[in-house]
């Protein structure tokens, strides 16, 4: 069951190590209180999560800009709840969200313990589609930044996962051997299929045990990665 000859382990960040959903909710709760929005935060989060997911898919495919993503996911969420607010308020919330989000530092269960064990045997790296100005803050604030030798963002690479160029940039930065490297992430298309096509070994973090096509190794919890590494 162990993967053989692995020297370098590449991780996705959001939803893989950094608890995006929890930290995002905390950021929005603070912003809603600051803005005194007369809207139930739980109703908002329920519609926001799938809308945000849709916008990230569009962003990955270069169908929307970063600015359109930040604004559009909020506007569409408010519209779906028939909540009227000024465009200037939406833009302020979008800006505040980027500021507040990395101030919350919850990690997924088992992250620290896993990284402590893995760094004894492997060189660790991050490959993320998240925004450059936010991802480093997230990692520093949550205390995991120093576990990683290299951090490759999509803005630095000029393309987003699953494009092969972002994996190429990460390999070049790290000096890693492709055949002795593994990519771990929660997004089947971006992290797993993209990395596998590039030539990396992969492990799919699939906490909901969602059915999928393919023969990729998968785990539901981070500590299960030690069965492979």
Automatic annotation (TrEMBL):
Source superkingdom: Bacteria
UniProt cross-references to PANTHER family, sorted A to Z: PTHR47478, PYRIMIDINE 5'-NUCLEOTIDASE YJJG (PTHR47478:SF1)
Alphabetical list of InterPro entries matching this protein: HAD-like_sf, HAD-SF_hydro_IA, HAD-SF_hydro_IA_YjjG/PynA, HAD_2, HAD_sf, PGP-like_dom2, Pyrimidine_5'-ntase_YjjG
Name the UniProt record assigns to this protein: Noncanonical pyrimidine nucleotidase, YjjG family
Any one GO molecular function term: 5'-nucleotidase activity
